[in-house]
Amino acid sequence: MKKPVSILFEDKNLLVVNKPAGIVVQGARDSEISLLKTLKDFIKRRDQKEGGVFLAVVHRLDKPVSGALVLAKRTKAAKRISEAFRQKEVIKLYVAEVEGSLKGQSLIKTYLKWDQKAKKALVFEEHQEGAKESLTYYEVLECRKKRSLVLLFPITGRKHQLRAVLSYLGFPIVGDVRYGAKTLVLKGKAIGLHACFLRFPHPITKEPLEFLAPFPEYFSLGNLDKTLNLGFFNKKFEALKNFYKE
């Protein structure tokens, strides 16, 4: 049976997939279908289940964002993974392709406030009423043809954090017209942001799990195509983990 998305890992407690851009994780409108419903339908047919399928969303990726996404297949697993997120035991690293020639590396502290009318995060240098602190580490991996590939480590987890902060720096993510990009990706369905590395303890066995989600074809990885592997991301996180503990 054809899988609706690429499955990176599955056991009786977990399902880890490589989410494609252009599909909402949960709460789709009437005119579209969610990734959650698609996966539930697939599991029901594959496993020939007569009743409903339990599958819980424990974190999300924005609709135009691709990459590693974990879902829970048991209520106990869902609770423990959610707790792992709260305890900062879940590590997520992203790579973005941005417009412009961004240089160097830096830890960026800003304050984000969600604008419901504009459906975007507003960025402030100083604290504002209703705004939450945002910490983002970025490191430029490669720069060419007025575009840059950037490693991103979101130390906090604010809505649209990476998209808003990069736009604030003057380097919007390719395809992210909501935050100032000038070009489209996949006719507006995708942006150049990929959740490529995910690491967390198994909710039952506590065994450390780590996953690398292959990049979509629309990413211009250039010389980094074979460099961006599990070893690369593990070394990067080891160098950055002190940020995460603070």
Q: What topology does this entry show?
A:
Layout: E1 6-10, E2 14-19, H1 35-46, E3 56-57, E4 66-72, H2 75-86, E5 91-99, E6 105-115, E7 120-124, E8 132-144, E9 147-154, H3 161-169, E10 193-201, E11 208-212, H4 230-245
Structure notes:
- The protein has 246 residues and is an alpha+beta fold.
- It has a single domain, classed as 2-Layer Sandwich (Pseudouridine synthase), CATH 3.30.2350.
- Helix content is 20%, strand content 33%.
- The protein has helices spanning 35-46, 75-86, 161-169, 230-245, and strands spanning 6-10, 14-19, 56-57, 66-72, 91-99, 105-115, 120-124, 132-144, 147-154, 193-201, 208-212.
- Strands 1, 2, 3, 4, 5, 6, 7, 8, 9, 10 and 11 form an eleven-stranded mixed beta sheet that branches.
- The mean pLDDT is 92.
Parts with pLDDT < 50 across at least 5 consecutive residues: none
Name of the CATH architecture = 2-Layer Sandwich
Helix share bin: 10-25%
CATH topology: Pseudouridine synthase
Q: What's this model, at a glance?
A:
With 246 residues, the chain is of the alpha+beta class. The protein has helices spanning 35-46, 75-86, 161-169, 230-245; strands spanning 6-10, 14-19, 56-57, 66-72, 91-99, 105-115, 120-124, 132-144, 147-154, 193-201, 208-212. The relative contact order is 0.17.
Give descriptors for this structure:
single chain, alpha+beta, 246 residues, Pseudouridine synthase, eleven-stranded mixed sheet
